Amino acid sequence: MDLWVANSRALHGCIDEMEKIQSCLTKVLYVVDSVLLPNERTLCDRVFKGVSSPGDFASTVVCRELNICLVRIANHLATILEYEMISPVLIYRMIELLESSLEANSKNYKNPSLGYVFIMNNRRFIEVETKLNGLGLAFGDDWLHKNTTKFQENLELYLRSSWNKIVDLLKVDINQLEPSVTVELMKDNLYWFNEHFDETCNIQSAWPVCDEELREQIIKSIENMLLPAYGSFLGTFEEFVGKHAYRYIKYGMFEVQDRLNKLFLLRE
């Protein structure tokens, strides 16, 4: 009986101690998320005023370090077997803070597309860390599935935000227009395609994507969206304009692919 009482007291003592740790960590993480990170973003904006890429990159690195810290703390807690009755509660709370942090900080980017890339970067990191450290049970299958779904949603939002306008320039209803009008419209659309494509590639070549697999996945998604539309447009354009079409075509199919393969080259 004495041994049972002693063990019971020890167990309650461990739980009480873990609850104190949980409360402390929750408060610290709340302060980091609601005070420190927003102030860090403000500081980056002031230091790199007028130059968006370095400021966005610096902010991305800071936020990424917080997420690394959160995932590693969850990993350590999940391995402390004697606290397994309480650690899932703390881990769940940390996941909530992590997700709210991602969503809040993604809104700080002036370019919405970069905000979507920021979320994809961090969600891919979480996915990799959970697999490497065997955290599937701690995070739960439902959350891991949700993470994959959220990642895909942000990929679609990124494509829509960055590339929809460019792809729309390649859509011309030739059946509704006179041939002469079609030619002029296609020339005009091709000009603006070249302008927007150049601008987007120049900007996004300096965006950070640290995971090569993620980089390839995003580029492949762009190719699937852009290349068929561009190839079809060029075929129709050459048919209508004739032998002088080359004067207006800045990029062939291989040149477009080459530009896309130079996206997201900045490394953290």
From TrEMBL:
Exocyst complex subunit Exo70 C-terminal domain location: 90-261
The name of this protein is Exocyst subunit Exo70 family protein
Domain of life of the native organism: Eukaryota
Task: State the protein's purpose.
Answer: Component of the exocyst complex.
InterPro entries given in the database record = Cullin_repeat-like_dom_sf (IPR016159), Exo70 (IPR004140), Exo70_C (IPR046364)
Task: Tell me which stretches of the chain form a coiled coil.
Answer: none
Membrane-crossing residue ranges in chain numbering: none
UniProt source species: Phaseolus angularis
Gene3D superfamilies recorded: Exocyst complex component Exo70 (1.20.1280.170)
Q: Which UniProt keywords apply?
A: Exocytosis, Protein transport, Transport
- What is any one GO biological process for this UniProt entry? exocytosis
At the highest ranks, the source species' classification is: Eukaryota, Viridiplantae, Streptophyta, Embryophyta, Tracheophyta
